Amino acid sequence: MRDKIKKKLNELRENSLFRVMPEISEGAGKYISVEINKGFGKTEVRKYINMASNNYLGLSEIQEIKRASADAVLELGTTSGASRIVTGNYNLYDELERVTAEFKQTEASLVFNSGYAANVAVFSALADRNTAVFSDKLNHASIIDGILLSGAKHIRYRHNDIDDLAALLEKHKDEKDKIIATDTIFSMDGDVCRLRAIVELAEAYGAMTIVDEAHASGIFGRGRGYAHEAGLEKRVDIHMGTFSKAFGSFGAYVAADRDIIDYLRNKGRSFIYSTSLPPAVVAANLAALKYVKNHHDIGYRLLDAADDIRRQLQVMGFDTGDSVTQIIPVILGTNERVLMAKEFLMEKGIYVGAIRPPTVPVNTARLRMTVRLDVLDETERILDAFRTLKAAGI
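Above: the chain's sequence. Below: its structure in token form.
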């Protein structure tokens, strides 16, 4: 077994796929601090403009949100102490779920420890070997893992290909229980799903629709998500979203009708068998949610800025795929090239993610740039760095 592990690790290194943790001292804010090894036992801490974090609205630095989190620690301590169904529940949790359901305009909601835990619970609880789940090929790994754990028939349709989805639904039309699952914003491409067509097919074939709004929550639809932006929120059965991205905190929610939420509370293993979130996190989630409700225009400001940056990158000759959101891929192709580009941009003071297979398909390695509301005053510096990258021919 150890020889097998060593062989696999060597293969990762040879293919520029070996991953290590960056020496980051602070990584959520406007600037990211990274410890650089200078050799001979010497290190240097450098500061970069943070274009890699999912803290899209910069809410982690909003004083009223930080104060709410700190107050909860002082009042309730640092841990919940148990799972929700034992003693890990408290009033802040109940308020967060009530406010979340009101915000999402659903009957009820349930808070989970992470988006991964939420998707694993949803699919493993609702689907079984008699269920057919139709899933976009670029859906997040948590959706895929939830489907696999459920034992359901996992039927993947080509990314955003409605004709392929329709053909597969027709082929499997006799399946009694059917689910269509999709991200609304795809995390590595920054494009959006064809939700109206998906909903119409789901209704025609009697399928349940589940959407993952992780990268749309807080931004689209006055912060409510892409389904609300498209005016389809009442035609979607289950909405999942996170507090760990635009809301600047941690954890996730599922919003749906009361029966579905009651069922997940009783059958969602990742919910039942996890210690609940600590008071500091729940209070931050609640404060962030209220902040977005009161500042619902900030998502549109972010999208307008991202649109301007994307158009300028395209003018330079960069391939940004089908992005129409705050996530902008710069597709370079090979693993080696994308790693070189990342290092080049770091020399210019810009930190972006270098995304390689298996996260993205082979030969589509890319820089993943996430536009953030709190870095817009640095836009020209960012664009100048990309102009220099293009001129360098990397």
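The mean pLDDT is 95.
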